[in-house]
Amino acid sequence: MNIYKFHTRKVIGLLALYLTIAMTLIVLLLPVYWMVVTSLRPEEDIYTGVKLIPNPISFYNFIDLFREINFQVYVVNSLMVASSATSLSLIISIFAAYSLARLEYRGKEYVSRILLFAYLFPSMALVIPLYMILHSLGLIDNLLGLILVYLTFTTPFSTWILRGYFRSIPPDLEEAAMVDGCSRIGAIFKVLLPVAAPGIVATTVFSFTLSWNEFLYALVIINSDRFRTVPIGILGLTFADVYPWGRLMAAGVLASIPALIIYLVMQRYVVQGLAAGAVKG
Asked: Would you list the DSSP string of the chain?
């Protein structure tokens, strides 16, 4: 009888677990599925009713984005800005995180807290000061200005993540390399960075995603259509109170592809990097 009750409880527990997982997947994936389905429906068909399977399937919305909207320009701009901001912030963050994780100097903990607060500080509060600085430098409506602004949130984020990851790596590895005649810089590049590759990849992925999805700064700094990024380009698809849902959903699908590809390719490194960085972060 006790064995029967045990099996019954186990089955109920598994059913509850699977049901919870299924409901979570539905909540998370249904908006994505609906976006894809809507993007494959003709504009006039979208308002006829709910369809879980598009019939007929049409790629006109995607073709229209590139033929009439020049959406490829927005994609190229976003790739340039996100890649440049991620690369620059990664270079700065590696050395900044190393100093916070390995070196001893006065005020180190305060610097760490300032970096965290800088990342958590509301971007809305920084829009006007950053706009004034860029205006004085002549970098308004310029991709270079946008890249420099993106460094204000990608660099603190990357430094904080890499600091936690570097602290999880035993310093004995670098010390052994320096005993063998390697300089500190050499030990960083030859020993620390290869070991820290999963954390660096995870940081790169998240930093790129932050830059790719950023909306507020791009909206304020960029005025010309030829310099628009993908989020601002999607906003430009609406006209007053008219929402071309087919184009909007097609643009959303295209905007999701780069980040999705990066996550799928680097998924193993992202999980390893976050797990290791959380140990001593």
From this structure: -HHHHHHHHHHHHHHHHHHHHHHHHHHHHHHHHHHHHHHTS-HHHHTT---SS-SS---HHHHHHHHTS-HHHHHHHHHHHHHHHHHHHHHHHHHHHHHHHH---TTHHHHHHHHHHHHHS-HHHHHHHHHHHHHHHT-TT-HHHHHHHHHHHHHHHHHHHHHHHHHTS-THHHHHHHHTT--HHHHIIIIIHHHTHHHHHHHHHHHHHHHHH--HHHHHH--SGGG--HHHHHHTT-BTTB--HHHHHHHHHHHHHHHHHHHHHSHHHHHHHHHHHTT--
